[in-house]
Amino acid sequence: MLSIILESFKKRKKKFSLIMIQFIVGFCALLFALSAVDHLMEYKRSVERLAPLDSIHLYMQTDDLPGPSAAQIQKYENILTEIQEEVALDRLGMFEELYVREINDNTINTKMSVLMMNQDMLNMFDFDFSQGDKNKLIDYCMNDQTIPIIISSSLTNTYEMGGLYDICFYDESQQKYRVQIVGVLKKSMGIWTGGSSMITDSIATGKDVMIAPVFNGFSSDIPYTCNMVLDFSSTEDLNETMEEIQSILAKEDLSAQYRTLNEEIQQYYSRQKTVVVATIVFAIIILLLSVLGCIGTILLSTLSRKKEFGIYFSLGCTMKHVMALAIGEISIIFITSFAVATIKSILLINFVVAGSEFHISFLVVGVSFFIMAICALLCTLVPLRYIGKMQPISLITERDN
Amino acid sequence: MSLIELKNVNKYYISDDSRQQVLKNISLKIESGDMVSIMGPSGSGKTTLLNILGLLDQQSDGEYRIDNVNTANAKENDRAYLRNEKIGFVFQSFNLIKELSALENVQMSLRLSNLHKKGGSKLGTNQIKLQSIKILESLGLKDHMSKKPSQLSGGQQQRVAIARALVNNPKIILADEPTGALDQTTSKDIMKILSDLHEEGKTIIIITHDNNIAKYCKNHLFLLDGQLVGHINHSA
User: Fold this and answer.
1) How many CB atoms neighbour CB A333 within 10 A?
2) Disulfide: which of A182, A205, A227, A286 matches A194 by Cβ 3.0-4.6 Å?
């Protein structure tokens, strides 16, 4: 039966090609729409892994000149000490982005980003590992000879799990630091790269990045002014606590802006909502049009092929065989369109938006396949109903169309 | 034992509030190797009888045996198998699939026969092709095998239809006005082919209202208003 279905499809591929083009566009739109939703959800998961959703992303506004001095850093240290003494702060996560290079046979290797996180930040951050864990980073003491490091999955081509390497800062200093890779993050894991903008605006996936405990002290005011997350899990009145923090800062002529992680996520959602909803609506409209077009075309094709079905019947087919032929042809239309749409979408994303974090996941392909199966079912039901009602004897006497 | 045997076969068509009887109490026997014409005016029930004989339609009551198989209680699959295996159809309008070439049309009959076969008894692609080419060549269509029906003349299309009917080597050929759409010369050619098949031992049943066509047959059945009103046997 399969060879007969394939042969029949081959003979009518011109007729079916228009429907297939419709569906390819429809499925591409669907894959993009679902990927946009998936991307949004992945983003949310990445942000949620940073810290509890009710923790605060706080960034300070200061009139101090850029280029921090030891005195400035000491000032921030003092402020934070006062905050920790005055309010019920559970955890204070901070990190600094540094640039390093590997020392290897005296050759200068590529500049790499290291996120140097304090203990609280390491504790708060729920890393998603493909290998290893963060325990050695949490247990690290500044006097330890070897610095434990976690690497992003993109660095696994260069560095091996458990491997020892020498690095130095990407400046004139020649001081070597010995690091050991103790963990590898999953590819999908997003990392907050810091900055005063919203956390949701600075989550990166697929970036070459190393994560280390604080091994050299913070060298700039960025961790104090921007890259800070405060966890007030045991605080009952957050507003009151924040007022207290503001008053401590005001004494040093500083002010701070803050949002909970949850608020940042909601703001991010509301900004993305229009684009995502528009894409989904577009995909649904295209798919609906494709399904309606397909039902119409297949019905027309079925009705115009009554005589052909009659011939098959006279040659020894049952009506079940005729139905199988119709179902087979529709299945080929859908499966081929879906396969082409999936390949096209993946290629399009790889070439057009190369380097972006946007991608089509297996989950998206799976959900799209399920929707495709429903569309195929809808397109099959109406023609099958007609074939089921056909009287074989009326088919063979049908006039040619 | 007759190849075809009908006993008290009736056929009714029931519409909303009426019942029309198109075949009335038909009983007949056709022996293997016969060449029979079924004649009668329009509306006499000739085509209905042929459809029942060809298992395209089912009698309302009565008994129909083909090659000693009672078709009354046969399942759809068994009827389809009998159609494929025992019967070859030749229609007035040729009934070729317009998207397929002459060769593919003939091959289709063999490919569909595989639906009723299991495992090793199925015909391979090459075997199907060779068998189809052979039958088309025997009917003088060697140079037309790759042509679509629209590229063939009426006579050539009917030859392809005959080739398709014969490729399965059925015992019975049912021809419904096989020359109805053809000119006189071509009609003679087609009837010559059918006569030759009869000589080779095939059972040929032809529906016609043309005496010139009927004269090729030795047996003649006459239908009028759904009743069998006459039976002439020249071979007797």
Assistant:
1) 23
2) A227
Provide ipTM, 2 decimals. 0.87
A-chain residue closest to B52, CA distance: A393
Chain B contact present for A207, CB below 8 A: no
**pLDDT tens-digit map of A238-265:** 788 888 888 888 888 888 888 888 888 8
Asked if A321 contacts B111 with a C-beta cutoff of 8 angstroms, the reply is no
Q: Higher pLDDT residue, B14 or A343?
A: A343
> How is the beta sheet containing B227-233 ordered, strand by strand?
B87-90, B172-176, B203-207, B35-39, B219-224, B227-233
What's the rounded Cα separation, in Å, for the pair A252 and A63?
A: 11
Beta bridge partners of A282: none
Asked whether residue A401 carries a pLDDT value surpassing 50, the answer given is no
Give the global pTM.
0.67
Q: How far apart are CA B95 and CA A368, in angstroms?
A: 42
Q: Which helix (H) or strand (E) holds B221?
A: strand B219-224
Nearest to A1 among B99, B115, B164 (CB): B115
CB atoms within 10 A of CB B212: 12
Closest approach of B5 to chain A, Cα-based (Å): 20
Residue (of A35, A192, A211) closest to A117 by Cα position: A211
> How far is C-alpha A368 from the geometric centre of its chain's CA atoms?
17
* Of A266, A365, A341, A398, nearest in space to A28 by CA: A341
In chain B, what residues touch A314 (CB-CB under 8 Å)?
54, 56, 83, 89, 95
pLDDT in tens, B74-88: 888 888 888 888 888
Residues written for chain A: 401
Q: What is the pLDDT of residues B59-115, one digit of tens each?
A: 888 888 888 888 888 888 888 888 888 888 888 888 888 888 899 999 988 888 887
